Amino acid sequence: MISLIETKDGSFSLKRSDLNESYHSEYGALSETKLVFIDYGFLYWCNNNPNANPNVLEIGFGSGLNAIATMKFNPAKVYYETIELYPVPVELIQKLNYGKLLSMEKEFETMHLSPWEETVEIDNTFSISKHHTAAQNYDFGNERFDVVYLDAFSPDNEPELWTIDFFKKIYQSCRANAVLTTYCCKGIVKRALKEAGFQIEKLPGPEGKREVLRAIKRI
């Protein structure tokens, strides 16, 4: 059901045959993550909040690429919380080349082998808490997060994670001026984010995608 693929920039990704959808852009998994989630989301927030330590929420842990890239380009001390209903089998994770490409092979392995439902310190600047559950049923709490990566499968395949009600839960979990980024720029997603309270902006996408979204909780 899940197979390994190589993307255009040389980084690997995974593909779900039952959904006919890959975990990352086939034009470049690493380049997509770096632009959409790191540059537009994480580093944008860090640059606007110097000397602050962000709490990051990721919807869709998947291959772990967003998490290891956040650790790689991290200028602060990060708490990283991530949700995944369908963990990727270890034998596939071991074939991914993100650790090698980012010179973080040990950290990538530790991140994936760390237990679920516990907070694990990967190093003194990065702690991660992985939750094996459905994101739509998870209690995110109130005003906890500064950066959100919305990296679920597309609205066609996971419609429950792109609704107004779900975005309202995310909005409530965000602190003032929190930043959410996503690769999906569909009209229904833009409207739902606005209805939930976010201010949105379209940004140039990575290769193969014209635009992506950044949403901010303005208070």
What characteristics describe this protein?
single chain; 219 residues; alpha/beta; Rossmann fold; 11 strands; 30% helix; 28% strand; globular
Present the secondary structure layout.
Layout: E1 2-6, E2 12-16, E3 21-22, H1 29-48, E4 55-59, H2 65-72, E5 78-83, H3 90-93, H4 98-101, H5 105-113, E6 119-123, E7 126-131, E8 145-150, H6 164-173, E9 174-182, H7 187-196, E10 199-204, E11 211-216
Helix pairs in contact: 1-2, 6-7
Describe the structure.
By secondary structure, this protein is of the alpha/beta class. The protein has one domain (30-216): Rossmann fold. The chain is 30% helix and 28% strand. The protein contains seven helices and eleven strands. The protein has helices at 29-48, 65-72, 90-93, 98-101, 105-113, 164-173, 187-196; strands spanning 2-6, 12-16, 21-22, 55-59, 78-83, 119-123, 126-131, 145-150, 174-182, 199-204, 211-216. An eight-stranded mixed beta sheet has the order 6-7-5-4-8-9-11-10, with helices on both faces. β1 and β2 form a beta hairpin. α1 (29-48) packs across α2 (65-72) and α6 packs across α7 (187-196). The protein is globular, with a radius of gyration of 16 Å. The model has no long low-confidence stretch (mean pLDDT 97).
